Amino acid sequence: MIGALIDGAIKRRKVVLGVTAIACIFGFFSYLAMPREAQPDIDLPYISVIVPFPGVSPEDGERLLIKPLEVQLQTIQGVKHMNAVARQGLAIVTLEFEPDAPKQKALDDVRSKTDLARGRFPPDAEPPIIEEESFSDRPIIGVVLHGQAPERELARISKSLKERLEASPGVQEAFESGAREELLDVTIDPLRMEAYNVTANDLSAVIARNNQLVPAGNLRSGPGEFALKVPGVVQKPADILALPIKKSGDRIVTIADIGDVRRTFKEPDFITRFNGQPAVALDVSKRNGANILDTVKTIRSVVAEEQKHWPSTVKVDFTYDNSEFIGRTLTVLESGIMTASLLVMMIIVASLGIRQGIIVGLAIPACFLIAFLMIHAKGVTLNQMVMFGMVLAVGILVDGGIVVVEYADRKMAEGMPKEQAFAAAGKRMFWPVVNGTLTTLCAFLPFMFWNSISGKFMSYLPLTLFFVLGASIFVALIFTPALGSIFGRPTAVDAAHLA
Questions:
Q1: Whole-angstrom Cα distance, residue 211 to residue 236?
Q2: pLDDT in tens, 296-343
Q3: Could you count the other beta carbons within 10 Å of the beta carbon of residue 43?
Q4: Do 225 and 332 reside in the same domain of the chain?
């Protein structure tokens, strides 16, 4: 069976070389299309349940919020640890699951149990927020808007830019910080309020009733149907001033009669400053699986396009750009791979000769490109662990080719035709090459079953080696004999030695 496979590869060597060339071309395009990241994008087994309750003390938060949650959440299967924190106005319960637990099922279980616990919360507690932790949720770049511009103008530009960024490909969310929410401040004159016999409850009731969206539905009239719209949302200060409060004789008392309205901002939850000046920042995160380098380029191009419409006083800067670090890291690793490949080629050429050295050396790019094709098909990103695996595999993947070429070279020096020599080398060295490669892979096999976050992180190293060294078996036993049957020639050293 093995002999027939190798003989068939040599007889149809043009087909073998063509298929290998096509696989390498697709592998090259796969390498270009692979998302770039600094570290593997693994699912962190952490889910947090956050319950906001303004004004609640830590003691009451523990009693009213955390304990009902703990009673329900502890019944979820697969929970490894459960940690709870009660703060002023907030309660947080964090669940740690087993690393191999299905993330979606865990999320569904947490949502259902949280809904059950919510029935025991106080009425004033806000709806719980369920968050899952992931490396992809972390910001990849910060966009900072600053300059000698009014706060309202910076807030307007920030909101417009936020909408544009979140609509861009590869961007998941742009979190805004430093921009306060705008509101209308109603200032009442107590003397006029008393003169018109208006109470504070009357004012709050009028504003609440007239600042809400009313779905009016459709009105059918005969064969036709009309959509009704009830304008009930306050949009400008004049809408507040015109609200009627009560009737006093023949006159309608409005808010304009007893007070004034001005535009202002809410009290800041946090303050953002850049180089000592007030600023508004947008922390942008990418979607899972998106190419961080392409995403950052898109973000910068969107900001540059929007900046053309801003006042000249508004400046923009970028902070903690992860693409720069990732680009430098991958460039260093790619340079390391090329340097290591060049050194290996020099050693092979020095020991086997130019022709045999090139035949063996072609295994390096062929194995890498075939491995990139398989890695991309599996959905793995191009990260540090993958590149380290490539560097580690450079000196290992040529071992099989060296053994096959050396054996074939010796047979050709003995007078055997090159087709028969490489066929004999492939058959004779089949099991030594396979066993040697499998022995190397067995040393890294335990990393594939390391059930922890560190194990999930490290698993990309043996996975890369499996793909690269698996491709080296095909290249050494199929591609190299097919290529050698065309370009092989005994070295002068072996011929002179046998003579």
A1: 11
A2: 899 999 999 998 888 888 888 998 888 887 777 777 777 877 887 788
A3: 21
A4: no
CATH number, position 114: 3.30.70.1320
**What whole-number distance in Å separates Cα of residue 356 and Cα of residue 191?**
102
pTM as predicted: 0.67
**How far apart are alpha carbons 478 and 19 in whole angstroms?**
11
What percent of the chain is predicted at pLDDT more than 90? Answer: 12
Task: State the DSSP code for 199.
Answer: -
Residue that is last in its domain, among 248, 265, 282: 265
Q: What is the DSSP string of 251-267?
A: EEEEHHHHEEEEEEEPP
Q: Which of 232, 247, 265 delimits the end of a domain?
A: 265
Whether residue 362 contacts residue 483, with contact meaning beta carbons closer than 8 Å, is answered with yes
Q: Which residues contact 330 (CB under 8 A, 6 or more apart)?
A: 36, 382, 387
Q: For residue 344, give the CATH number of its domain.
A: 1.20.1640.10
- For 122-149, write each residue's pLDDT tens digit: 888 888 988 887 766 678 888 998 888 8
Residue 38 lies inside a defined structural domain of this protein: no
- Beta carbons within 8 Å of 261's beta carbon, 6+ residues apart: 184, 185, 186, 187, 237, 240, 241, 255
* Backbone torsions φ then ψ of 168, nearest 5 degrees: -85, 150
H/E stretch holding 160 reads helix 151-166
Angle at 480 between CA 477 and CA 484, to 5 degrees: 130
C-alpha to C-alpha distance for 196 and 49, rounded to whole angstroms: 49
What length is written for the chain?
Answer: 499
* 120 shares a domain with 239: no
Q: Which residues of the chain have pLDDT under 50?
A: 492-499
